[in-house]
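If your schedule permits, I should be very grateful for your opinion on a structural question. The matter concerns a single protein, recorded as an amino acid sequence and a row of backbone structure tokens. Could you please explain, in whatever detail you think fit, how the structure tokens follow from the sequence? I set the record out below, with my sincere thanks for your time.

——
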Amino acid sequence: MTGEARVDLRDLLAERYRAGESVRELAERVGRSYGSVHQLLKEAGVKFRSRRRWS
């Protein structure tokens, strides 16, 4: 994915991540891998939340 479509998806993912969705939820929503969504969020400059730890 390149160009404007990539920028649009990156911005959408960043907005939803900042609103509270997880990387995994976003990956499922858009049908992309966890790694590709993480990379797009990184490119968008998001500050990643720490992972939840289950006891």
In short: The radius of gyration is 11 Å. The chain has a mean pLDDT of 94.
